[in-house]
Structure formats: C-alpha cells, structure tokens
Amino acid sequence: MIKVIGAGLAGCEAAWQAANRGAHVELYDMKPQKRTPAHKTDLAAELVCSNSLKAARVNSAAGLLKEEMRRLGSLLMQCADKCSVPAGGALAVDREIFSKMVTEKLQSHPNITFVSMEWTSLPGDGVNVIATGPLTSDSLADDIKMRFGGALSFFDAAAPIVTAESIDMDCAFTASRYGKGDGDDYINCPLNKAEYEAFHEALVSAERTPLHGVDVQNPKVYEGCMPIEVMAQRGSDTIRFGPMKPVGLIDPKTGHRPWACLQLRRENAQGTMYNLVGFQTNLKFGEQKRVFGMIPALKNAEFVRYGVMHRNTFIDSPRLLNADFSLRDDPNMFFAGQMTGVEGYMESGASGIIAGINAAAALGLCDKLVLPDYTMMGALSSYISDSSVKDFQPMGANLGVLPPLDIHIRDKQQRAQAYADRSLKYFDERGLGNETDS
C-alpha cells in the first residue's frame, strides 16, 4: 500500500500512476476538514491561480512537457484535453470541470481510497509520497524542516535566470574575483559610469509586483534575499558596493576595473543557464526584461525564469532527493510537486507521475523510471537532484534546462522543434505512446 499525502496536481497524478500499476493507494487531503486561504473548493486538483496550462504547441517548453506527460498516461492531461476552453496558443481549461473530472476519476478507481485527514508530521513507515504543495500546513512544514532543514516558508525573493547562448559575450568576460577558482566560474557584465547611473535610475523607479492574499500574511524577507530594487533605494552606490561591486575584476577589453559589474553564475552543470547573482527581485516581469536589458551584456537576454517574491515552501532537493524523487536516505519516501522545487501546474503534475511510478516500483510492481535529461521531465528531475546547483530555487519548464543540441540552430522555433524531436524520439523508441484511461 502507498500513502499519497496531498490531493493537488502532483498528488493526484502520483496516486493515479501508482494505482494503475496495481498499488493500493490511500490519497490523503485535509479538505474538506481544513483549507488554506488559497483554496475555494473541496475538489482535488484545484487550480488556485490561472486556468492556463501554458503553451500548447509541442515546439515550446510547456508544450513539450505536456506531450511527454501524455506519453506516460497522465491523468491531468486526459482531463485537461477534454475540458479545454479557447485560449489562443495556450491550453486552458474550465477549472471547475477540470477539478471535478480529476476528482471523479480518482474516486472511481478501484485501487484508490480517499481519506480526509491533515498530516501534521511525516509518516514513519511504508512507501509514501509527500505532495502537500507550496502552502503546506505549518505543523507538517515544521516537521519537514526539523528532519531535513532547507524548508522555507517566508517571502522568498529569487533572482532571474537567462540562457547562456543569449548573453552577449562581446560585452562580457569570464573571470573570478582576484583570479580565484576556475577562470570561467563567472560571466562578468561590466558597466561604465553612465551606463550604471542610467540603470540605477531605471531600477529604483521600475514597477513592482503587488503582494496580496496569502503572501502578505508573513511579510518577512531575510537580508540575504533583499530585492535588488529595495537595496538600490538605499543609495546610488549601495549596489555598486554590493552585488555589482567591481572589486577584484579587470575587464580585458579596457585593462581597467569596471565602474560596476554584474556577475552571472552557472545555474546547472551543463552551463546552459546562468543566474544573475544577487539580483533577487520583485519587479514585474516586463520591467525585469526592460531594466536588466539595460546592462549591455544582457540586451538580448532570453529569460528562462524571471525573479519572483512570494511565500513558498520547498526542500533543499539537490542535497536530499534522487532523480526518481525519492529521498537519498530513504528509498521508500518520495516527494512530489512544488515542494521539490519544480514550479508550475504541469511541472508539479509531471513530478507526481515520476514519483508515483517509482513508488509503485519500490513495491516491485513495475520498473523504476528515470528519464534522460534531454527530455523535459528528465531535465527537471535532473535539476532538482543536481548537487552542483547552489542557492537552489524553484524551476519551471524551459528550453534552457535541456542539454545543448549537437548542432547550433539560430531560428528559435526550429531550435525548439529540434529539442522536441530529440525528446519524443526517446518515447517513440520505447513504445511510450498516448496511453488511455485505466
């Protein structure tokens, strides 16, 4: 028997996958006894924010993720495809019909039993999947923090991430401060005095995302996560002596120390993504692209994740989890959903698919599933379990998380199609098609 705790998108998918492989599943959720402020119904798989599941076309990161999920018999995709509503190039759903359909399918499955109960601590025995989401109840979050550390529940300010290939290296150089470490540890983006002053003025006046709902109930920001725009308001030179300090750096193009310098640090082992060091932010997404694009090396930058500031709860997955979403020190304990550091509706569901299949494998009911990192699901699994990832922050589906193609393709859509073709070839070669209902 498998206990799945949490009937959100990840928990529903995990329960479905495990049950379809012959496991008897108890699916726990604290509704209807208790709800978080974000939940409005007693249904499973409630969409608490947008009703959009992002791009539908397969030659996009979001579309490729959904197609891979279909190939693995995703419950969420079966339901979403049946209750979609017009949304241009996106897949959007009638959220009430969607949640009702998911709930009914789970309730009618002979191997699944729904249990209304709040877990206040981690289960101690058996095979378990923890999928309680970013708004995990305080008592369970405290237990997780006590056991593992690294669980966060406060205003979490994260820095943006850009693709390596979109950085203008004619305006940047690789070096570590004072020549320490490997020469290419950081990409440095220098600014002269005029460029810095224009950037600073734009930064302090840029429009920010308002905080509301459950986010404002615990408005604590640690000093180490101070948004760059808040820091910049402390004085014209504050960030020039902080995240943008040029000390220990010499621009080889000028032979001098820059007036200010943003450092970019590798986000993954392959070096396909870089984060803006010290640039945690709460600016609106459009403002981030505009303002950060004023830094010469980032004028054409492609953002795979914009900076965000919100309440979140997630574990330090690169130190704790394997790529199959099991704990490194307990192969019978799995985590799934946003608690693992995947970000987004379908990303959560995809992690539930992998956790559910591997929970069933822990009972000897099927083969273990670990997808290669050139698939979108495999790349996300690799990211959350990659011990080289520092200052771990949640990640959604994006093409930058995939390893590079063998050949360079300049056209963005053609490049995205090549990524999709490479991934889906893996599923085709193993006969993983669009599986049907149980």
Strand residues, percent:
15-25%
Task: Just give the CATH class of the largest domain.
Answer: Alpha Beta
The CATH superfamily of the largest domain turns out to be: FAD/NAD(P)-binding domain
Q: How many strand elements?
A: 17
Strand order of the largest sheet: 6-2-1-7-17-16
**Radius of gyration of CA atoms, rounded to a whole number:** 22 Å
Q: Tell me the helix content.
A: 25-40%
Looking at the structure, the CATH topology of the largest domain is: FAD/NAD(P)-binding domain
Task: Tally the structural domains.
Answer: 2
Q: What's the helix-strand series?
A: EHEEHHEEHEEHEEEEHHEEHEEHEEHHH
Termini separation: 18 Å
Task: Enumerate how many helices there are, as a single number.
Answer: 12
Description:
With 438 residues, the protein is of the alpha+beta class. The protein has 2 domains: 2-153 and 313-429, FAD/NAD(P)-binding domain; 158-310, Elongation Factor Tu (Ef-tu), domain 3, CATH 2.40.30. 30% of the residues lie in helices and 16% in strands. The chain has 12 helices and 17 strands. It has helices at 9-20, 61-71, 75-82, 95-107, 138-148, 193-205, 228-232, 285-292, 317-320, 345-362, 376-384, 412-429; strands spanning 2-5, 25-29, 52-55, 84-85, 90-93, 112-116, 127-130, 154-158, 161-163, 173-174, 186-191, 260-266, 273-276, 303-305, 308-312, 326-327, 330-335. The strands form 4 sheets. It has a 6-stranded mixed beta sheet, covered by helices on one side. It has a 6-stranded antiparallel beta sheet with strand order 10-11-12-13-9-14. Strand 12 (260-266) and strand 13 (273-276) form a beta hairpin. Helix 2 packs parallel to helix 10. The chain is globular, with a radius of gyration of 22 Å. The two termini are 18 Å apart. The model is unreliable at 213-224 (pLDDT under 50).
